[in-house]
Amino acid sequence: MAPEHELRLPEETMRALGHRVIDAIVDHLTGMAAGPVGGRPTEEVMARLASEPLPRAGAADPGKVLDEVHELLRTGNTHPDHPRFLAFVPGPGTYTGVLAAALAAGFAVPTGWRLTGPVSTAVELTTIRWLAGLLGLPEGTGGLFVSGGSTANLTALTVAREEVLKGEGTHLGTAYCSDQTHFSVERALRVLGIGADRVRRLPADTGQRLAPGPLAARVEEDRRAGLLPFAVIANAGTVGTGAVDPLPELAAFCRAEGLWLHVDGAFGAAAALVEEGRAALAGLPLADSLSVDPHKWLFQPAELGCVLLRSPAGLRRTFGVSMPSYLAGAHASGDPLPDPDEGVDFMHHGIQQTREFRALKLWLSLKVFGADAFGGAVAHGIDTARRLGRFIDSHPGTELVTPPSLAVLTFRCVPVVGEDVPDECVDRACLDLMAEGDALVMPTTVAGRRVFRICTINPRTDFTELCEVVVRLHELWSARAEAAGDATARTPGGPA
Fold first, then answer.
1. 222 FRET partner, CA 20 to 30 A, in 92, 191, 273, 486?
2. Per-residue pLDDT reduced to its tens digit, 116-145
3. Is the pLDDT of residue 312 over 80?
4. Spatial CB neighbours of 118, under 8 Å, sequence gap ≥ 6
């Protein structure tokens, strides 16, 4: 081992540990489909982790520490990259993204300043240009990579507040979205000083979309009350049902009213890689800003989100800083430092200075696989959802509630005529499935009733296995419904 004051390992130990880590990752990626979707640690394991004392001396055998970590990661959590992880929005990352994350960390790549990170800056700019092109966004669109959709929404809405309100009347600023919008939007607005009393979560229409008519009426009402509407947040694929708000109509309204249109496309914007998805997302290029998470439907490891702006100069106006004295000197060679007004310097584009070289994940993956492969994987997710929808409608005892939209669908189990099955049977069936460990499906609420929800974006997902999951959910739900009926019958005053 190295001396106590040195945080180093011998070269041969580093290589041996690195090989073990890579082997563990490859084993996980190639073999997880045969195993459970995740595990739950025992109470003993949790108690041991919670009470573990701080190690004062280094490990005699670092390999044993890695073995412990491997076992904990393998058995102690759910795996969002598992092909039968169908809940929320799965995270089916590519191996190239894993390698890129390791390379970025291993080389301590600087990304906060163009002077120290010229190549990382160039790669990020190129990857942003590629991503904007894949999504069909206008020439000149720019932005930066951030940790995820929450930070992307926060960054975009900060620009919206500054560009529209121009630093005045923030206490009157008011924003608008539907009740299907992700909670990260309201949280971002809270950070910006836009309290819950000035966030209008308007009821979605029957298609789970933000309707322009009620939106216009509420904006007019708020203006009459002396408030300052400044932003509309639209959805390009809600997490709940995959719904897409009417983007062309919302864009036209925002232009006419001088409002900022931000589109939360964290999950769904990637559908624009294929013709069918681009048609469903018509109007996406009209947004003032867009959030998209490559760590979702572009198959990258977390953390990798992106904020894109039609006019990226707004980032500089919002986040640009005066150069402090310790940066305003000169190179050792005597050359002056780069003028921050020349070219893009990401230190002026967001709230984070020291950043992971996130762009490398998507850049390397696109270089290795090519954009067409990504488009094919996105198309596969859309088609799989469509096929599964047909199966659900044809299977006795199940029916679609919301049809497939951007690889998300919801369905219900149909009770026997005259039965009133409690909504909690849906939730309990999902928990029963989770306890079995073979798949994970989570419920949602549509039109006031609990339903099953499935997201099919993982290209490793097998259609036959998806059908088996639906059948098993129907069985579990039926058992819960029968038990609930028996309990009602036994209740005093219940049905005879």
1. 191
2. 899 999 999 999 999 999 999 999 999 999
3. yes
4. none
